[in-house]
Design brief:
With about 280 residues, this protein is mostly helical. Helix content is about 75%, strand content about 5%. β2 and β3 form a beta hairpin.
Length: about 280
């Protein structure tokens, strides 16, 4: 009996061990399957994240292109305006540098796909080029008018010698190329000389007999007004101009003339002259 019992115990023990080994194998297989599922999910998540990234990038690229396209019509409008101005300038002024600058701006716009600020900057550049061409043509036309006077000769009572003297004074103070002609219309005939916003200067016959110093000052003063007109908007908006000069363009013109070495009867201190010197180079500080 004891032998049979022992034999049964051995058989049972062997069955228990076999069952345990089978369970361990099943457990290992289950863990392996779970790991495979997790790895598959991780791989799918990675592909999903990648796809989302591609979609986000595509949407951003589309938004950037739309922003660039939205500001292009303004550039096209400015190019059309410049084209018209260049057409009107043919045979009058040299526009080669302007055309080169416009072409460079156009190429930058054609190459840009993402940043609308690049297109806006190019638009501002073309607008400035149009303004320059228009101003240069106006100056040319004024000079042409000055050669024969608007509707008449460049002088009447002052004569060619008198005109030549005033012309020489204007050239001496830096006004070579600025239109000049005799007129009795300055301030209704009460002013000896005056500047026109179109870029030319008129004088009365009476100043022909002035001394060289006084005549030089008069032309420097009127030339200063020509430069004031070129920055008129910024000038009249300047608080410093209001404080230093009381918003008086005549006082400022006197200081500008003094800066060039042609002082008048009204004195200007060093600070006023320093500020006025900026107007000669188009700077309103």
């Amino acid at each position: 009996m004891l032998a049979v019992t022992a034999a049964l115990a051995v058989v049972v023990a062997a069955g228990v061990v076999g069952r345990a080994n089978a369970l361990d194998a099943e457990r290992a297989e289950t863990v392996a399957q779970l790991r495979a599922v997790v790895a598959s999910l991780d791989d799918a998540q990675g592909r999903s994240d990648h796809l989302h990234g591609l979609i986000d990038a595509a949407e951003k690229d589309a938004a950037d292109r739309a922003a660039v396209l939205a500001v292009r019509p303004a550039f096209t409008t400015e190019v059309a305006a410049l084209t018209s101005a260049l057409s009107g300038a043919e045979g009058k002024i040299d526009t080669s540098a302007t055309r080169a600058s416009a072409l460079s701006a156009q190429q930058s716009v054609l190459a840009e796909r993402k940043d609308p600020a690049v297109v806006q900057a190019a638009t501002a550049t073309v607008h400035a080029l149009t303004a320059k061409v228009t101003g240069d043509v106006a100056t040319w036309q004024a000079a042409q008018s000055a050669r024969s006077g608007p509707g008449g000769p460049a002088w009447s009572s002052s004569g060619p010698d008198g005109y030549a003297r005033v012309r020489a004074a204007l050239d001496r103070v830096g006004g070579a190329g600025v239109g000049l002609y005799e007129s009795t219309s300055c301030a209704g005939g009460s002013a000896a000389a005056c500047a026109n916003s179109n870029g030319y200067i008129k004088y009365s016959a009476g100043i022909v007999g002035w001394s060289a110093d006084r005549l030089n000052w008069a032309m420097a003063h009127e030339l200063a007004h020509i430069y004031q007109f070129q920055v008129w908007g910024a000038l009249t908006s300047s608080s410093t101009y209001q404080t230093m000069f009381g918003s008086d363009p005549e006082f400022l013109a006197n200081c500008m003339a003094a800066v060039r070495g042609f002082p008048g009867a009204v004195g200007c201190d060093a600070d006023q002259q320093a500020w006025a010197s900026g107007i000669w180079v188009g700077a309103v500080r």
